[in-house]
Amino acid sequence: MIMINDLVSQICQFGGKPYYVGGYVRDLLMGLPTKDIDIVITNITQSDLEKALFPFKPKYCGAVFGVYKIENYDIALPRLEVSRGIGHTDFHISIHKDISLNDDLGRRDFSINAMAMDILTEEIIDPYQGQKDLKNKIIRQLNTKSIEEDYLRGLRAIQFSSRLNFIIEEKTVENILKYRYLLPSISAERVQLELNKLLLSNNLSLGFSYLEKTHLMEDLYPHLHSLYTSNQSYYRKLLDTISHSEKDIELRLSLLFNPLHMTTNHHQHNICSTESLHIIENKLKDFKYSNKIISSVLTLISDPILDGTNFVIKKTLGHYGLTMTKRMLLFYYYTSVLSCYNELNYTLSSLYSELERVINSNEPNTLSDLAVNGSDLICLGLSGKDIGITLNYLLDCVLESPELNTKETLFKLAKTHTRN
């Protein structure tokens, strides 16, 4: 692991002056953990910076932005960005040693992300009143063209509000609404990244209130906009329930797109039509989610657990495995919360306790655990699809009563089943 003192010492030997910048400084001042660390080096040429970083084997991330990656550090020279059109790629980039730190900070999105810290002295450089906005819990665009130049900043403002529990300054909200027509200029992958951060936050209600204010809800989640206009009480309960659920994107997407929200009776259990599944699948594809995530979401919605009994948990565990079973139990619990205003049949802890009991019991829960197999049933005279049907019947019997899992008993059950 690279030690920051070694890195800084090497940079200083070549005359560079290193600063922490951006989100790392924001999180540091807020006392929040952070993974990636951005460093800007002033007073140094690019060739000298490369010489300074050479012992640390940096990965050069492209000539356009001049960023060098070393483990979780992103190191760059100050740069200027001048918009030449619509979107984050339509910028003219200037990188050289004479660009000031303040100029580099001035190209950023919001005041709370436009601060720097001198790594050597720990002095905070704050030309745009970011500390004041942090104290007042405000997200404010750095200039009036920030949102227009890169509309993704509008979505970033909304996910920041939801994650940090900050209010978005009114002029910034107005520009997110004003330039809403630029949403299609952003790639679906970049949109998905910001929406995931919003969906995994602790305060969906705040972020989604800004989606409504800026009319972005109609573009991104039209089914939720319809719910908002038709049943605000249930809409608020939905967002609150998702906010308190586990931070698992597949679970939260499943709760968000649950067809239960599209019915007029929000107390009935999850019933999903082929048409609804098709709509959900297409929407997730539009957002460029991976096939794995789409498959998981569609499975949760189309094949939900309907109760938390020992039998159901064993059958689900045998069919889907442990990870998916846990997710399905969570989905069952939270959809029950949404559809029930009275006492729930199961608590989350009781569902997990039953799952743990099933795992520790080592009781049979898959076809391969049965005391008989397809070859045995062929010897009984079965053939074709009757073999699979009978094996599944025997598995259900054993799931209900594990003591039945002997070859002799299963042969008897198989013979009785085939006669019927």
Give a verbal description of the structure.
This protein is α+β, with helices and mostly antiparallel strands. Among the domains are: 1-136, Beta Polymerase, domain 2; 367-419. Helix content is 53%, strand content 10%. It has 22 helices and 11 strands. The strands form 3 sheets. It has a 7-stranded mixed beta sheet with strand order 3-4-5-2-1-8-9. The chain has a two-stranded antiparallel ribbon with strand order 6-7. Strands 10-11 form a two-stranded parallel sheet. Strand 6 and strand 7 form a beta hairpin. It is elongated. Residues 264-270 have low confidence and may be disordered.
Number of helices: 22
Q: How many angstroms separate the termini?
A: 68 Å
Strand content: 5-15%
Principal-axis shape equals elongated
CATH superfamily of one domain: Beta Polymerase, domain 2
Strand order of the largest sheet: 3-4-5-2-1-8-9
Q: Give the class from helix and strand content and strand pairing.
A: alpha+beta
According to CATH, what is the topology of one domain?
Answer: Beta Polymerase, domain 2
Question: What is the helix fraction of residues, given as a range?
Answer: 40-55%
Integer average pLDDT: 91
**Radius of gyration, whole Å:** 28 Å
Low-confidence spans: pLDDT under 50, at least 5 residues?
A: 264-270
Number of distinct beta strands: 11
